[in-house]
Amino acid sequence: MNDSLIEYLKKSKKANEKLLAILLDPDKLSLDRIPEKMRLIHQSNINFILVGGSLLFTNILDSFIKTIKEHTTLPVIIFPGSAMQISNHADGILFLSLLSGRNPDFLIGNHVLAAPILQHTDLEIIPTSYLIIESGRETTASYISNTKPIPRHKPEIAMATALAGQMMGHQLVYLDGGSGAQYPVPPALIQQVAAHVVNPIIIGGGIQTKEQLNAAFEAGATMVVIGTAFEEDELVLQKL
Ligand code: 1GP
User: Fold this and answer.
1) What's the pLDDT tens digit per position in 22-54?
2) Among 4, 37, 201, 222, which lies 20 to 30 A Cα-Cα from 127?
């Protein structure tokens, strides 16, 4: 890939190309299983690997990403749950502002802790508006961040929030139902955001079926993230 990660995402949006990412959580995948997972990923049309989690119980992020990179040329992007999740082995990091919430730790606190460390890495830093959307039951992301998600029947709030993020200079929007969401982000909500925001949109949380995947793309997602479905069923990528 010659472009920066964000340029690639922006070009994909412009060309109406649809991208798929797999989210690998270091707590849920042991290092020795990475080669086998990467083989499955290479047999499908995955474009990006995301790594991270709201909670990390083990301090293995560096070796986790290093092992992934030994088995793939796909770009690896950190999707951090906190300022502790930084590794120079990745290609980039989503510099997330949790705009759906009103917790200063996730709006600026973690960023201040991370910035001096990120300055000395080669990571591409991607300023991202991160919006948690209500998805049926409380998610780890919402609980750990101590924030309320945006109600799923209020697309106008999601739209106004994503627009504000764009005006702040963010390059990307991530609408997330949260890991293992009961219901994915509603297509009507994605549509409303896509109609007003030029930044590429990432959708994640609870995507299990081809229908849900296509609905997200048709509503305006440039990239869809699959995490739990691949953890629970290794063959899911062939069905999507
Ligand atoms: C979670 O968007 C990601 O933050 C992926 O969600 O694990 O439900 O696929 P799932």
Assistant:
1) 999 999 999 999 999 999 999 999 999 999 988
2) 37
Residue 195 belongs to domain with CATH number: 3.20.20.390
CA atoms within 13 A on the CB side of 65: 24
To 10 degrees, the CA torsion angle through 3, 124, 134, 153? -40
Which atom from ligand 1 is nearest to the alpha carbon of 180?
A: 8
pTM over 0.90: yes
Is 90 domain-assigned?
yes
CA 180 / ligand 1 centre spacing (Å) = 6
* Separation of alpha carbons 233 and 240, rounded Å: 12
Give the residue, by CA position, lying nearest to ligand 1 atom 2: 204
Alpha-carbon span 91 to 65, nearest angstrom: 10
Q: What span, in angstroms and rounded, lies between the C-alpha atoms of 58 and 178?
A: 21
Total domains in the chain come to 1
Rounded to whole angstroms, how far apart are CA atoms 119 and 37? 32
